Amino acid sequence: MSRAIEKAREVIKNADAVLITAGAGMGVDSGLPDFRGNEGFWRAYPIIAKLGHSFSAMANPEWFKSNPKLAWAFYGHRLNLYRETVPHEGFTILKELVASKKDYFIFTSNVDGQFQKAGFPEEKVYECHGSIHHFQCTTKCSQPIYSAKDERVEVDMEKFEALNIPKCINCGAVARPNILMFSDWGWYGSRSEEQNREYHDFMSSVYFNNYKLVVIEIGAGTHIPTIRHESEYIAKEMSSFIVRINPRDYDIDEKLGIGITLGGLAGLKKVIL
Predict the structure, then answer these.
(1) Mean pLDDT of the chain, nearest integer
(2) For 8-17, what is each residue's pLDDT tens digit?
(3) Euclidean distance between CA atoms 59 and 85, whole angstroms
(4) What is the pTM of this model?
(5) Domains contained in the chain, number
């Protein structure tokens, strides 16, 4: 692995711009659960294992209609967890790296808001699956996406029920997180669309300035491969190089990049410090 690390360090050092692509594995070193398949999900939520629900079954907007107490037990607990979590040292390492470059951007499937909490500005982050820190109405209400900073959800973990249900600040209907779920036709995508426009502005800048781009991919698995697909697409389109940091799913076409068989924080320490 030493050759891989040397190659990664060289490419990162010589890059003009950085694209950070991050999946669930980015949060593991902060103590956040990695929902890798049903077994990983059930380890994080043993009470849901008893109920027999998979992650994809729980991450479905229909629960907000059929059983909002259960829906908000799941998302309310996650909201509370993410608020309490302190971003690990790897975020600081990345901040120091991008400060030395001409430009950078973050593309993440994580909904936990950890990049912003670590000090990265909103306009440099594209959360392609939305954010748990923003709410929306469950109906076709005229209320746009709004911040959840003043919302609190109390959860009875023994019964796995929310003790209070967040309501739309406009019409009073049940609210939900502004997260893209499975079989989700009611997601308000305007916030992510604006982030996407900023992301494309970054890519246009990289292209027109002829910046040498490196993609640093952290903790992106194959179960939901959104991040891996984006990393590889950008590598092909922009002739960039991927440094894929992943302790398990590290395989990559050698024409596109190199795999580092470490967790997020350990990998970042090796290839950047």
Answers:
(1) 95
(2) 999 999 999 9
(3) 21
(4) 0.95
(5) 1
CATH number at residue 62: 3.40.50.1220
Task: Give 213-270 pLDDT, tens digit per residue.
Answer: 999 999 999 988 999 999 999 999 999 999 999 999 999 999 999 999 999 999 999 9
**Total residue length of the chain:** 273
Q: How would you classify the pairing of strands 103-108 and 130-137?
A: unpaired
Residue 212 structural domain = 2-272
> CB neighbours (10 Å) of residue 66?
9
